[in-house]
């Protein structure tokens, strides 16, 4: 059994490590935005924090929808039905283009939220500009993630890593040029971040198109050998899998981003500290997230082969690996939280609040790693609706209500502290929400995998 576990961990890691580097590089773009504007001014940092809250909600929702392609293609790879993949990908690119354009429109319309947050006029102006400019990258991001799912399902994750690193380097260089106004260029501050990130998304899309066109490994499944119009029936079947994943991602990320918007009433220090804690937590989260992407691929391929018993084994090995990492990440964040805060900002007040929030982030590492790997395993089964409902319950039924009660302490709530706990109260709510999600997802994965095995053996008996 030990050798079997080690073998599966090796297969997972072979897919996951380039994805991890790629994910870290992608998140590194957001980290560079926050860190570089944080050393320019508190107003620019607050603008990026608020603008990134809206951008992240839409961005991650789009990413969730595109994950459906991973599950669909992985099943065809497991079944060795490679001839079906080009058609699937042509339709997925049409889907991605439509989703990306819709996301761009929604992102631009969403800036009305800032009108209700009692923001300082300069922060309001900068945050709105950030959102309007960065939205140019949304269609490119959606199509990039479609190709991302395609290459990952083929176990080809090197381009994901290399292209994300190219995007990170581009982002840092253009940030440096435009945030600070180097070489006579205008000093754009937070808007410069938006320009760099938006253009970086288009660069990453073109790099992925070039790679899949040139690399021999894609020749048998390359989707762009001829033109093909959109077929709504097939796009709809992918959306039936992808939309619940998108809603799941929306529920989780919007809960975190809603916290960022709700703490705005407590001032610039609270906004900046919350963004630092959220930004660093997102960076650490990329490890279990990358394992989850690999797990979706492995479970999908195994089910495509018809081996339901091994699919359950693969699922729980992936969850276990995520939990082991969470122990180490929680320890790291607890011991080095003050150093992490200081790396983001030189403001002592922001450092103190951020360090306290990072301690709470350390506490939810286990439940966060568990819930993401469990959800990704379920996506390998092409089951997405029940996990969506579980996440909605966890974040909108637990995390945000508890967070509002503790953070805002409104008089109309039946229970609340005598004094608002501000950002700390909201993060306690997030800890509880993630724990609820992990608990119910683990029960559902156990029941689903067991029922699939029972059905499989019953079918064999009837034959």
From TrEMBL:
The keyword Iron does not apply. The keyword Transmembrane applies. The chain crosses the membrane at residues 12-32, 52-73, 94-118, 130-148, 160-183, 189-211, 241-264, 276-297, 309-333, 353-377, 389-409, 424-445. It is a multi-pass membrane protein. Pfam families: MatE. Its main location: membrane. Keywords: Antiport, Cell membrane, Ion transport, Membrane, Transmembrane, Transmembrane helix, Transport. It is found in: Cell inner membrane. This is Multidrug-efflux transporter. It comes from Undibacterium cyanobacteriorum.
């Amino acid at each position: 059994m030990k050798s079997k576990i080690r073998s599966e961990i090796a297969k997972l890691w072979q897919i996951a490590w380039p994805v991890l580097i790629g994910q870290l590089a992608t998140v590194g773009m957001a980290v560079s935005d926050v860190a570089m504007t944080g050393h320019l001014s508190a107003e620019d940092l607050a603008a990026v924090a608020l603008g990134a809250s809206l951008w992240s909600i839409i961005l991650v929702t789009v990413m969730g929808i595109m994950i459906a392609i991973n599950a669909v293609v992985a099943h065809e790879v497991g079944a060795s039905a490679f001839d079906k993949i080009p058609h699937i990908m042509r339709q997925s690119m049409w889907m991605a283009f439509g989703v990306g354009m819709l996301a761009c429109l929604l992102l631009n319309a969403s800036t009305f939220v800032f009108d209700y947050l009692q923001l300082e006029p300069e922060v309001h102006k900068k945050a709105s500009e950030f959102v309007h400019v960065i939205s140019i990258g949304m269609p490119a991001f959606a199509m990039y993630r479609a190709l991302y799912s395609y290459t990952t399902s083929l176990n080809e994750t090197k381009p994901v890593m290399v292209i994300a690193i190219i995007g990170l380097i581009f982002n840092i260089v253009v940030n440096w040029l435009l945030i600070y106004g180097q070489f006579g260029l205008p000093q754009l501050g937070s808007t410069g971040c938006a320009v760099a990130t938006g253009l970086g998304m288009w660069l990453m899309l073109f790099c992925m198109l070039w790679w899949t066109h040139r690399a021999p490994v894609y020749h048998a499944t390359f989707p762009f050998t001829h033109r093909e119009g959109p077929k709504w029936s097939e796009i709809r079947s992918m959306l039936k899998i992808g939309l619940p994943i998108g809603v799941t991602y929306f529920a989780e990320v919007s809960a975190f981003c809603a916290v960022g918007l709700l703490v705005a009433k407590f001032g610039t220090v609270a906004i900046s500290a919350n963004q630092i804690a959220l930004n660093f937590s997102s960076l650490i989260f990329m490890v279990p997230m990358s394992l989850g992407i690999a797990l979706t691929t492995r479970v999908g391929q195994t089910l495509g082969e018809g081996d339901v018993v091994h699919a359950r084994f693969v699922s729980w090995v992936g969850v276990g690996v995520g939990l082991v990492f969470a122990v180490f990440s929680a320890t790291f964040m607890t011991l080095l939280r003050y150093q992490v805060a200081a790396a983001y900002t030189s403001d002592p007040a922001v450092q103190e609040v951020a360090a306290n929030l990072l301690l709470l982030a350390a506490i939810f590492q286990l439940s966060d790693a568990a819930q993401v790997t469990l959800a990704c395993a379920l996506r390998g089964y092409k089951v997405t609706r029940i996990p969506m409902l579980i996440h909605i319950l966890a974040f909108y039924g637990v995390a945000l209500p508890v967070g509002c009660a503790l953070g805002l302490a409104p008089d109309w709530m039946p229970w609340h502290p005598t004094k608002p706990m501000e950002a700390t109260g909201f993060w306690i709510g997030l800890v509880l929400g993630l724990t609820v999600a992990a608990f119910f997802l683990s029960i559902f994965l156990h029941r689903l995998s067991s029922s699939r095995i029972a059905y499989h053996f019953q079918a064999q008996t009837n034959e």
